[in-house]
């Protein structure tokens, strides 16, 4: 039986925004666009290698850093190539996912993509939109109005759209407005099923919440009944796999990363131009085996749920080093569910 790989595919190492909390290292931050033909050639080589080695691609997500830097014609060709692989390998029920800052997905851009692929429903388009507008604009180059307009256009055209909203220390100054923005999108979901998902994640690094802020944000989510939107409280997310996570990110130059969170020189662990997928899989399986987990995690009654979170994204210093950034929120939410006698499965089904 062919092995299935779930992957991010990075068309670029650069971006058209300069977000304050971006994970891309400074030496990769520029507005340079890769040559579109180079990207298409690399993608063809990638799928030829996958198929020659009797592998299949399951989830395919364009990411790292901004995939819309390709021309709309090229994006359409990429989507067609992925769908051809799925059709030729009897893989059904899959849709190409794209995670974007949303700036370039204008109506004109989508028109051209649609001409190439025939149906915009062949794409699941994720927009990075922080709420409220003031928090988004502070860290994302005053781009809220343009990004939200593009999101709204895509949604109204029937595309499957989603929102990923990052919570920073700035968010803590406008929590009610944050909740209002999120709640408006949830109302659209309830009425029409689109956006098909709305998710929240915490910023890390300099923009990360303090311990006290994390506690307060957790209680806020519980009060507003929004806790189920946290990525790490969503069944199946990679954040829950801990050191056993087996996602990959491949780029057009042959580099292999654990995922987009390790998108830097230190994160490169293989070269798909030179190494077989069998060898890459073996390297990936042990990549974070020795990454620190906090000793308290093994005694925690909720450890089964988070597995200390993403090994590249845990708390790095202090008494909580080795715990998931979301640890305090997880504990608060799970404790609240227990107090209210709400089964975990019911919590999942309602979110």
Characterise this structure.
A nine-stranded mixed sheet has the order 6-5-4-3-2-1-7-8-9. It has helices at residues 36-52, 72-88, 107-117, 133-139, 144-156, 175-192, 211-224, 277-285, 303-306, 327-339, 344-349, and strands at residues 3-10, 55-63, 96-100, 123-128, 160-167, 197-202, 248-251, 255-257, 268-271. The model has no long low-confidence stretch (mean pLDDT 91). Strand 7 and strand 8 (255-257) form a beta hairpin. The chain has 351 residues and is an alpha/beta fold. The chain is globular, with a radius of gyration of 20 Å. The chain has one domain: Aldolase class I (TIM Barrel), CATH 3.20.20. Helix 1 (36-52) runs parallel beside helix 2 (72-88), helix 2 (72-88) runs parallel beside helix 3 (107-117) and helix 7 packs parallel to helix 10 (327-339). The two termini are 34 Å apart.
Brief account:
The chain is an alpha/beta fold. 37% of the residues lie in helices and 15% in strands. The chain has one domain: TIM Barrel, CATH 3.20.20.
């Amino acid at each position: 039986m062919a092995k299935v790989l779930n992957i991010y595919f990075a068309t670029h190492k650069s971006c058209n925004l300069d977000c304050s909390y971006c994970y891309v290292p400074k030496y990769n931050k520029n507005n340079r666009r890769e040559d579109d033909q180079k990207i298409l050639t690399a993608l063809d080589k990638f799928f030829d290698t996958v198929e020659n080695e009797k592998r299949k691609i399951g989830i395919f997500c364009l990411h790292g850093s901004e995939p819309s830097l390709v021309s709309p014609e090229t994006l359409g060709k990429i989507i067609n190539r992925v769908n051809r692989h799925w059709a030729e390998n009897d893989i059904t029920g899959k849709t190409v996912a794209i995670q974007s800052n949303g700036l370039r997905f204008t109506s004109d851009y989508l028109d051209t993509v649609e001409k190439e692929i025939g149906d915009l429903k062949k794409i699941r388009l994720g927009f990075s939109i922080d709420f409220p507008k003031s928090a988004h604009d502070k860290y994302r180059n005053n781009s809220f109005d343009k990004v939200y307009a593009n999101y709204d256009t895509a949604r109204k055209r029937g595309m499957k759209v989603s929102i990923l909203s990052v919570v920073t220390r700035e968010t803590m100054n406008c929590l009610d407005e944050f909740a209002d923005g999120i709640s408006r999108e949830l109302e659209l979901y309830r009425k029409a099923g689109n956006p098909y998902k709305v998710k929240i994640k915490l910023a890390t690094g300099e923009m990360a919440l303090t311990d006290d802020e994390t506690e307060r944000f957790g209680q806020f989510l519980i009060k507003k009944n929004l806790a189920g939107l946290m990525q790490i409280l969503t069944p199946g997310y990679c954040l829950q796999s801990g050191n056993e996570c087996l996602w990959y990110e491949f780029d057009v130059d042959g580099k292999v990363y654990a995922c987009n969170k390790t998108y830097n020189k230190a994160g490169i662990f293989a070269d798909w131009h030179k190494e077989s997928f069998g060898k890459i899989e073996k390297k990936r399986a042990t990549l974070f085996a020795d990454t620190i987990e906090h000793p308290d995690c093994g005694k925690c009654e909720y450890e089964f749920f988070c597995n200390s979170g993403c090994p590249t994204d845990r708390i790095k210093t202090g008494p909580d080093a080795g715990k998931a950034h979301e640890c305090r929120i997880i504990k608060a939410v799970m404790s609240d569910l227990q107090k209210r006698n709400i089964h975990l499965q019911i919590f999942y089904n309602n979110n």
